[in-house]
Amino acid sequence: GKNEYDLLVVGGGSGGLACAKEAAQFGRKVAVLDYVEPSPRGTTWGLGGTCVNVGCIPKKLMHQAALLGSALKDAQHYGWNISQPVHHTWSVMAQGVQNYVKSLNWGHRVQLQDKKVKYFNIRGSFSDPHTVRGLTKAGKETVVTADNIVIATGGRPKYPTHIAGALEYGITSDDLFWLKESPGKTLTPFVFNVSLECAGFLTGIGLDTTVMMRSIPLRGFDQACHISKIKQMYFTTQQQMASLVTEHMESYGTKFLKRCFPTKVEKLKNNKLQVTWKNADLDTEETDSFDTVMWAVGRAPDTKTLNLETVGVKTNSETGKIIVDASEATSVPHIYAIGDITEGRPELTPTAIAAGKLLAQRLFGRSSELMDYDNVPTTVFTPLEYGCVGLSEEAAVQRHGSDNIEVYHAYYKPLEFTVAERDATQCYMKMVCLREREQRILGLHFIGPNAGEVIQGFALGIKCGATYPQMMKTVGIHPTCAEEVTKLHITKRSGLDATVTGC
Amino acid sequence: VQAHKEEDNPQKAMEGNGLTPVPDSYDYDLIVIGGGSGGLAAAKEAAKYGKKVMVLDFVTPTPQGNSWGLGGTCVNVGCIPKKLMHQAALLGQALQDSRKFGWQFTEEVNHNWMTMTESVQNYIGSLNWGYRVSLRDAKVTYENAYGEFVGPHTIKATNKKGVEKLYTAERFIIATGERPRYLGIPGDKEYCISSDDLFSLPYCPGKTLVVGASYVALECAGFLAGLGLDVTVMVRSILLRGFDQDMANRIGEYMKEHGVNFIREFVPVKVEQVEEGTPGRLKVTAKSTTGDQIIEEEYNTVLLAIGRDPCTRKIGLDKVGVNINEKTGKIPVNDEEQTNVPYIYAVGDILQDKLELTPVAIQAGRLLVRRLYAGATTKCDYVNVPTTVFTPLEYGACGYSEETAVEKFGEENIEVYHSHFWPLEWTVPSRDNNKCYAKIICNIQDNERVIGFHVLGPNAGEVTQGFAAAIKCGLTKEQLDSTVGIHPVCAEV
After folding, report:
1. At the topology level of CATH, where does B181-306 sit?
2. 3-state DSSP percent of chain A in helix, strand and coil, to 5
3. Under CATH, what is the fold of the domain B28-177+311-374?
4. Are A47 and B67 in contact (CB under 8 A)?
5. Are A168 and A146 in the same domain?
6. Does residue A148 sit in the same domain as residue A177?
7. Which of A40, A184, B242, B257 keeps 20 to 30 A from B231, CA to CA?
8. How far off is chain A from B89, nearest CA to CA, in Å?
9. What predicted TM-score, i.e. pTM, was given to this entire model?
10. Domain of A456?
11. Region (Disordered): which ranges (chain B) (predicted)?
């Protein structure tokens, strides 16, 4: 054809790179455009997208730094003599993390080169359905034409621009991981899993951290009943898993300002930030000063500079995300979209990667396999991690009715917590099953250490249609936390005490 | 061993043989001999169905004089203290990592053996206590006495003071477990210790020689080295016999690279005491298995981990006619855990051809009791039981090893998918980037069903558990491929 490339991928993140490399495997001519618009603070980064640069990777590494802080405390119970006091130096951690991320940027460039994928560091915008043009940093215009185009430009953190001073004085996760100096006393208003994860590790490395919550934490995650150990209510629309996670963070040292929302941010003479907020419960106005205010109010798709209107790619008017069908096709033939930018999809790296690969296989291989977005496992890396796969309790009830659902649950204590004298009050798991005949497992939720490692294998089981009897037939590995999943037998319905006791 | 009907009249048979007649009413419905993982699980389950149950538990002191409370091997001298000391060693590594993550403290970091051991023993004490309470709550009678059969349906219980009592029961479950084997060389019982002694050792073991290549040997050597001790492992031939040998060798390599010395193809022939003390100094003489070479070396402690023997030789099994394997001491049972004597059952480590694992013993004990008293029919499923070896680099496995898969299905009928991986948490502290490893073995002829899963890396137990459940559900390669990973965790590999 007259187009220069078989495939052009706009956006060099998890989805984009996976799609491009897979297409190249089929001997196709592929190009990738990647460009990072600097954040309002001026932060920018290299090839690899959100996950590598300002998401999963630096987040998990800093989470690990915080976990190691806890390990230092545990170690003393296990006989290790460590001089007190123990300090944490932000710049040492940040440099270690940033160096590793840069090695990944480099690795991605090498991989593209090896696979003969052409890489342009330009910000592209559509001029017609097969043509994208953009400017390099040096100001040179480049035009790229392709038979097929995949949009994978991801998202960027939103700013609450209606709050005075939010944009001028606040930062977001885009900046946090690249700070050269410690953020100091930090406020992170509003609650999505990003702010809980960040607040968690900031607390863990010894910083004075406050989370400001307007309403409920971890919106979209499981929000079933808040239970006391002795009396369980079957299920209500109150928080459960989410509240266990935040309960733990409170005992861990993170401060929570509940039912509050900020109204303005001002800079003080000593360069600190003064934040004013409204307390909805007390109907009062309060203020305090912080070194850093990190907004975590959600992410918006990065589509404004793409010029989607020109080519007619339809987006959701509310969210701005690109509407796609089950094959990732947009409203325009030969233009596709994958990853965080697509409407109705989970915002996760592994789903973007899987979707990108399958798309390339359908376009250039002989595959017809569509991406299965059901039963995608995830983990929130808060100080006490929360991993889950499948349906939440409410979704199961909504879909099947409360009489057709059985929820098995347990409070357990990781063995390693015993000698370390750590509080395991929030270590909890529950399995949501159908009640009828086979008792198929609809969802599994786990709060505890290494939640991701625990959930991953069970996600496979659920993919295979695992049932409660099959789970009970699986022998446990002893001593682990995961074995408790194979021993779940107390139902919420029974109202019995769900605390695990001994071997 | 065929299943026997209990309608056969044992009394008539015994009288016919000139033995004492059996009483018509028994003291107990069920007597469990052995208060470990299997025994306690069975006892508590039986009590749930309103049965009158007694548990006899007794610990014959080790040659060094060591003993412990209710709960069996797992709780006292197995899984629990092992994992806690393994955790102590992992924390030592975490300390080193933490510096790269920005944590600062003095260069000199020492480990205090007594602090660790005291904490571990305190926790175990709480478990012993917890078991006694739970037996009491379940209305199970517990006696700290040595049980042995003296006649049909009758056992003699001898306590620490030597007081003997007789008890009768309709049924018995033998769950006496095992104890470490000794070498049978001069000085072994006098000067060497075993895992029965290690976890409560009241002094730091110092420079240690671990004899053996079992998972016990490697796990102990692993954490001792992790705590900063000079450790040597003396191996007669291969590591981890019965495990996937490729994985076994990787474990050994990792340990070697992380400071554990290995002496291969040697066996000790003599242990002598050079100096008394806590610890003292011992001289070990060893002979090559492949030639005439003799070596000598001094150690503070010699830990024997060459295997375990079932406690079945001195419990009067001959008096009731229960068959045991004369060579190994293990008890053969049918698939309902029944011995050749209809009213006598067995669970746990003493069973022939079954896995020596706590969860298996518990599962078998519970299901057995449900079949006996609750009309259940489910038998214990011994297939695809997952395990984990808690060496410094942990190894989780479920299903076939590569060798057994090749043997059973033929090399051309299996496909092995494998990958090295670098845990994200190891990147910043610059830890090994090519040691962690995972492989799955698939049966090509059966829809590429996953028949073996092996992973070498941190938290291997947590990773493996879920995969074991999936394998139980008949996981295929295609289903594995279509399952999205959680990012970033090791298990997504």
Report:
1. FAD/NAD(P)-binding domain (3.50.50)
2. 30, 25, 45
3. FAD/NAD(P)-binding domain (3.50.50)
4. no
5. no
6. no
7. B242
8. 9
9. 0.89
10. 384-494
11. 1-20
Instruction: Kindly state whether residues A266 and A396 are assigned to the same domain.
Output: no
B-chain residues within 8 Å CB-CB of A477? Answer: 359, 386-388, 396, 461, 464-465, 468
DSSP per-residue codes, A236-275: -SS-SHHHHHHHHHHHHT-EEEETEEEEEEEE-TTS-EEE
Question: Is A377 contained in some domain?
Answer: no
Q: Class of the B394-482 domain? A: alpha beta
> How is A191-220 classified by DSSP, letter by letter?
-SHHHHHHHHHHHHTT--EEEEESS-SSTT
Name the strand (E) or helix (H) holding B398: strand B395-399
Annotated binding site of A for NAD(+): 298
* Residue in chain A lying closest to B226 (CA): A80
Residues A93 and A61 in one domain: yes
The structural domains of chain B, with segments of one domain joined by +, span 28-177+311-374, 181-306, 394-482
The reply to whether A481 and A409 lie within a common domain is: yes
Query: How many domains is chain A partitioned into structurally?
Result: 3
Residue appearing with tokens 């100091």 = A184
Q: Which residues of B are annotated as a binding site for FAD?
A: 83, 147, 349
DSSP 3-state percent helix, strand, coil across chain B (nearest 5): 35, 25, 40
Phi, psi of A125 (to 5 degrees): -145, 150
Interchain pair B463, A69: CB under 8 A: no
Instruction: Tell me the shortest Cα–Cα distance from B417 to chain A, in angstroms.
Output: 17
Structure tokens at A69: 């802080």
Q: List per-residue pLDDT tens for chain A, 503 residues long.
A: 589 999 999 999 999 999 999 999 999 999 999 999 999 999 999 999 999 999 999 999 999 999 999 999 999 999 999 887 889 999 999 999 999 999 999 999 999 999 999 999 999 999 999 999 988 878 889 999 999 999 999 999 999 999 999 999 999 999 999 999 999 999 998 766 888 899 999 999 999 999 998 876 555 555 443 323 222 322 332 357 778 888 899 999 999 998 899 999 999 999 999 999 999 888 999 999 999 999 998 899 988 889 999 999 999 999 999 999 999 999 999 999 999 999 988 889 999 999 999 999 999 998 999 998 888 898 989 888 999 999 888 888 888 998 999 999 999 999 988 888 888 888 999 999 999 889 999 999 999 999 999 999 999 999 899 999 999 989 899 889 999 999 999 998 888 888 886 54
Q: Do domains B181-306 and B394-482 have the same CATH topology?
A: no
H helices then E strands: how many in chain A? 14, 23
Beta carbons of B3 and B336 less than 8 angstroms apart:
yes
Burial of A493 (0-12, 13-18, 19+ CB in 10 A): middle
Residue A476 in domain: yes
ipTM of the assembly? Answer: 0.85
